[in-house]
């Protein structure tokens, strides 16, 4: 049987079949990690709608859009793995071309990243306060986000134009590297600006500054994590453009973006800290029930109070927010 003309020895079969460890193997690992993060995001979305039913419709719409995009993104990468590893198992010729679901991963990831950056850029603009800082911060943030969107659009066009992976690598791999580099720059600039604005709004009062320190820590950790991940993807795209390691990191970063946005909307602590009238400040704050409004909905009031304390020459944030109708929920910012 082994001596028949049409037989193929195991050694010859091993030589002719391409290695999949840095292509589909990397995609499989990335899909598994993204599935875990997708489950975390859906769980937090469910808890958000249960805990904060009084949030503005725009906030609920933004969370819903992110959740839908995240689910669609996960379905696309699962279909990609199933297509190559199950439906067309042991068909090396199929590996040369990209399936439609893999092509749609790039624009879906780009939209999620853009929404995340727009959200954090808005936080920075609110903290900027005066026009001297507002204009340059808004201009730089808008320029970086638009650049990222442009690279994503060009990459989407290129991956639909180029039928095979090799043609895409030869003609358009630089677009992916440039897009990832723009994301690294955007994460670094927005996180750095947020930290700078928060430090600028320090008042010298211990309780106020402790809140700002927690926000600064959150901004640094989030920005550093995303910058390192996107930098790793960019290096992989430059050094190994014909592999899919950068693609695996790319799809995981999408889940981290969506989870980082929802982490600001919804915190895990069941005991809110409330800032309202002088009478309520003298009570045990952990005994007050939640108002059904998330921290994001009231964070503009916190920023306004911080700016008020800065402009009035040192009024404590807890004293600046003295309206009985104003209740700010800060759920375990640490």
TrEMBL record:
Domain DUF6534, residue spans: 184-264
Transmembrane segments: 23-42, 63-85, 100-121, 133-160, 172-198, 210-237, 243-265
Keyword match Cell wall biogenesis/degradation: no
Native source species: Ganoderma sinense ZZ0214-1
Listed name of the protein: DUF6534 domain-containing protein
Alphabetized UniProt keyword annotations: Membrane, Transmembrane, Transmembrane helix
Region feature Disordered, mapped onto this chain: 273-293
Record-linked Pfam families: DUF6534
